[in-house]
Amino acid sequence: MINKKVANVQDALKGVSDNMTLMLGGFGLSGIPENAISELINIGAKGLTCISNNAGVDDFGLGLLLQKKQIKKMVSSYVGENDEFERQMLSGELDVELIPQGTLAERCRAAQAGFPAVYTPAGYGTEVAEGKETRDFDGKMYVLEHAFKADFAFIKAWKGDTAGNLIFKGTSRNFNPNMCGAAKITVAEVEELVPLGTLDPNQIHIPGIFVQRVFQGAHYEKRIEQRTVRPKS
Amino acid sequence: MLDKTGIAKRIAKEVKDGYYVNLGIGIPTLVANYVRNDIEVEFQSENGVLGMGPFPFEGEEDADLINAGKQTITTLPGASFFDSAMSFSMIRGKHVDLTILGAMEVAENGDIANWKIPGKMVKGMGGAMDLVASAENIIVAMMHTNKKGESKLLKQCVLPLTGVGCVKKIVTNMAVLEVTDKGFKLLERAPGVSIEDIKKATEGTLIIEGDIPEMVL
C-alpha cells in the first residue's frame, strides 16, 4: 500500500506559504483540524484565504489565526460568535465572501470530483447571484457556481490508516469528506492512526486516494460551542 | 395572541406521519417538542444528522454530536450521519418533506428575507438560501410585526432577499396565512385576535374569504 503517513504536524504542513488558499473542515468547532491550525500559527503564514464554513470563536479554531492577522480572506456561510472577526471585517482588514452552506459544500465536492462548476437554485434572485451566470432548467432558475481552487485542504477525521483511508465520527464529519482531494494537497489529521488492515474496507468513508498526508494529532481539545443539556430526572 | 411556544404548537400540527423535517434556529427548534408522539417523524439537521433526538443529559455531551445551531444533541435509534454535500442533496433534491424557518420579512409573492440587515454585522446565510430555494413545503414561523410594531408581512421585502417566491405558509403570533397568487390568504386567527387586528398588522394584500376560524392548539 502507498504510505501516506508523515511523522508529525511539521512534516504534514511542509510547503505551506504566504498567500495560499486553504480549505479547512469543520462545522462550528466540531471536526476542525486543531493540530493543523496550531501549526499554521507556528509557521506564521500570512495573507491566507481560508475556505471554511465558519471562522471559529475568538480564542479557538480559525479565531486563533484571525488574532494573528494571518487571514486575508474568509469564504464561509456563517461567521457569527467571533468579536475579532467582526472588528476586522468592519475595519476592512478582512475580506469576507459569504456563500450558502450547500453551495460551499458543492463547490468543494465539484473540485474533488472534477467538475468545473455546478448549477444550484440556492441564491437565485438574491445578491449571492449578482454577476454570476444564471440559467433556466425546466422553468426554474439556477446559478452557476465554480469549483474551488485551493492549495491545501486540512481535514480532521476520527480514525485513519497509513494508506490514508479515513473514518469520521458523528457530526464532526460535516465538510471534511467533501474537502478531501479538493485541493492540490490534502492533509488529514486523525485522533487515532492505525496500522494497515485494521480498518474494515466496508466502513471507510474516504479512500486514501484522496489524501496525500496523514498524521495522528498530538492533542485534541474538542471544545463544545453551545453546551445544551436537559436535567436528569 | 400567541407567544413563541404557541406558534411552535400550531406549526407542530403541520408535521405529518412519515415526514422528514428540517427545523431552523429559534421558534422552529421548539416545534420538535410538540409533535404528536403517535406519528413517526425524523428531524434533519443540515450539519449532517438525520434522526436527531433531545438534548443530552448533563455529563453526556459529545463534541462530535451537535446540531446546526452548534448545540449538543443526541440521536435516536435509526439515526444516520453524513457529510455536508449529502446533507444538501437531501435538501436540494427535495427529499426533505418540510422546512420550518424564521424570517425578518415575507412578501405577498412568497419572497423571504432572513439573513442580512444593511448596516449591521452580517453573520451569513448558513443553509437558509439552499433550504428556501429547494424545499417544496416551507412554513415560516415568526412574529407578525417587528419590535417597532411594523408589519413583517409586506407587499415587497425591503431587506436583502434569502429566496424568491418560496414561502407557502406563515404562522405568526396572530394568524395562519397561506401565500397565494393574489396575496396572503387568511386561514386562521390566533385566540383573542380579531380580523381587524390582523388587517392592521398586515401591510401586504390580505385575502379574507368567509368565516375565519380560531386556531386550535
Molecular structure report:
Chain A: It comes from Flavivirga aquimarina. Chain A: InterPro entries: 3-oxoacid_CoA-transf_A, CoA_trans_fam_I, CoA_transf_BS, NagB/RpiA_transferase-like. Chain A: Belongs to the 3-oxoacid CoA-transferase subunit A family. Chain A: Keywords: Transferase. The complex is a heterodimer of chains A (233) and B (217). Chain A is α/β, with parallel strands linked by helices. Chain A contains six helices and eleven strands. Chain A has a single domain, classed as Glutaconate Coenzyme A-transferase. The mean pLDDT of chain A is 97. By secondary structure, chain B is of the alpha/beta class. In chain B, 17% of the residues lie in helices and 24% in strands. In chain B, β1, α2 and β2 form a beta-alpha-beta unit. The relative contact order of chain B is 0.16. The mean pLDDT of chain B is 96. Classes of the chains: A alpha/beta (233), B alpha/beta (217). Chains A and B meet through α4, α5 and α6 of A and α3 and α4 of B.
